[in-house]
Amino acid sequence: MNRNSGRLFACALSVILPMLAATPASAQQPYAQGLIENPFVANLGMFIVGSDLKARLNGSSTTNPDVDFNDTFGTGSDETRVRLDLLWRINPKHHVRFFYFDNDITRNRVLDRDVQWGDTVYHVGANVESNVKMKVYELAYEYAFMHQPTFELNGSLGIHYTDLRVRLAGNATTGGGATAAFVTEERKLPAPLPVIGVRAGWAFAPQWYLEGVGQFFKVSIDGYNGHWIDGRAGVTWMFHRNFGVGLGYNRWWTNVNVDRDNFNGSARFGYSGLQAYLTGTF
Which residue, 201, 184, 194, is CA-closest to 33? Predict the structure, then answer.
């Protein structure tokens, strides 16, 4: 677990433990049903995960090879990964969901190979800093095909937006030049994609709730050609009428080819791993 995640986890424990101490061990109230019946549900989670990025930025006249950022620059020592999920039940059948993910990784490495990034070449032996910022937003309408006190099944349709920014800084040559100089190269890849999905939730015990979410879409439009996949499963313990803690697994992945002025190339990026989260419902 990285330093930022550890601090967040410690803050979460400082809130949760006093509440657990005040909760009778014998209490078996049907708190979990609130995650199916209440109008508002929020999950705030941190990840014990690895993120992956393989990208290619084509030069003015060439198609460059992919750069594996984890393999080239390491896994990162300064990182922030947070996911927020919000659900608003307008009524039992009609819902609105919002999702936000923030991933910011800075890595520094003396290169053991040349890295071709567009028309810039970072050479062996250069000390290069890599910064990858990825923000993901999603807004979706959800319809409940089945809604019972302990179970619900929903379908969704929405828009998903990824803002990927990649910056490399270090000694490099540009445009085939022979003289190396300090070069900062930053490219932005906004990737708007529609998305469809399904979500199921089951309060299988008075204080326990199991949820699974799957989303997918593929599109080719306006210089973008790619697909997006998100799969998540988690179990939540509602130790209080309004609060709970959970542990889940999340796998998120985007593969997109882009032919636009600000980014001409391809990117395969995502994250996967365990997610620990706090749940609130009202």
Answer: 201
In DSSP terms, 51 is beta-bridged to 271
φ, ψ for residue 8 (rounded to 5)?
-65, -40
* Rg over CA atoms, the chain: 22
CA distance 123 to 115: 6
- The H or E element containing residue 98 is strand 94-110
For residue 240, give Cα distances in angstroms to 150, 206, 230.
17, 11, 29
- First CA to last CA distance, the chain: 31
Q: Grade residue 58 by pLDDT with cuts at 50, 70 and 90.
A: confident
Fold of 3-281: Lipocalin (2.40.128)
CB 214 within 8 A of CB 230: yes
Residues pairing with 109 in the sheet:
128
CA–CA separation, 20 and 184 (whole Å)? 50
Burial (0-12, 13-18, 19+ Cβ within 10 Å), 69:
buried
pTM higher than 0.85: no
Classified as helix, coil or strand, 108 is strand
Phi, psi (rounded to 5 degrees) for 239:
-80, -10
Token digits of residue 127: 């000390």
For residue 123, give both structure tokens. 């050479």
Q: What is the pLDDT of residues 185-207, one digit of tens each?
A: 888 877 777 889 999 999 999 99
Residues in the chain, overall count: 282
Query: Is residue 206 helix, strand or coil?
Result: coil
